[in-house]
Amino acid sequence: MKAVLQTEFGDSGVLKYTDVEIPKIGKKEVLIKVAYTSVNYADIKKRTGNKGKGNFPLILGLDVAGTIEEVSADSSFSKGDRVIAFPKGGTYAEFGVANEQLVFKIPDNLSFEQAAAMPTVSILSYILFYEIGQVKKADTIVIHSAAGGVGSMLVQLAKLAGVQKVIGTVGNLKKENYVKRLGVDVVCTYETFAEEVLKQTNNLGANVIFDSVAGEVTSRSLECLALYGTLVQFGNSSGKAGTLKTSDVHSSCRNVKGFSLGTTRKHDPARLAPVAEKVLELFATNKITLPIERIFDLSDAVQAHRLIESRNYEGKILIKI
């Protein structure tokens, strides 16, 4: 099968379009013929070596939309089922193998393109919003990187839930119109958001802040987090860890919660099925959509990575297999 292989850490040039063997399935696994995979910032971190060690050669990619090609004995799936999944061993390839717990059937009216845009960012966002952040209607919330995949989802979930005020940050104000169309009420840059949040809340601060950037953004977030507020930390796209003092937390009754979809896929995969069902319903009924910036061919994965790294995009970037 065709795949994009990586044998060393480095820039996008280390990605090689080549031939590899089709993987074999084991017990409680399925083989999926991939239609589309999404490109996530986690792929960039893994490619460059900023996300753990590399077991080379490796194939990048977290999620797919495609069709079941082969099942193991007593499977609840059948050949031909349309699914989204989190395969093991990467997704920049024509076929992928996934544990059945990480495979979810999709409605007939949901296109593979839209389905491929959603697995990682939509399931992650739903858990962040409802389970970790526990956002209420009366809250003022801040969504960092509001133009990204998770940000785009969080904004729409907030509007569906009737949240009082949604403040979004962007790295470039050229993305202001995009995030406002999604439902952001107030748009800020990373340099100005703390002051703007305090201004918008009469110096009370935001009730929930979603932070995937970390670094200095984490410190600034604590400057504008309300008493009893929650900072939800789920990434560090800045490449730097955020820091805080315990005195920033206990005396103000604020809390910091962390979440990783990767950790949950590995250690508590059963937690994802009910969430997948809910988000698939939201997409199938057009209550939520994820704008797709561009679709690349598998042989053009290098260009897809360069676009992600430029940060000059809005919504999701897909690879068509």
Commentary on this structure:
This protein is of the alpha/beta class and 321 residues long. The protein folds into two domains: 2-118 and 290-320, Medium-chain alcohol dehydrogenases, catalytic domain (Quinone Oxidoreductase, Chain A, domain 1, Alpha-Beta Complex); 121-262, Rossmann fold, CATH 3.40.50. The protein is built from eleven helices and 15 strands. Strands 3, 4, 5, 6, 7, 14 and 15 form a seven-stranded mixed β-sheet that branches. A six-stranded parallel β-sheet has the order 10-9-8-11-12-13, sandwiched between helices. Helix 3 (119-132) packs across helix 4 and helix 3 crosses helix 10 (272-284). The N and C termini lie close together (11 Å). The mean pLDDT is 95. Pfam families: ADH_N, ADH_zinc_N. This is Quinone oxidoreductase. Residues 10-319 form the Enoyl reductase (ER) domain. It comes from Bacillus weihaiensis.
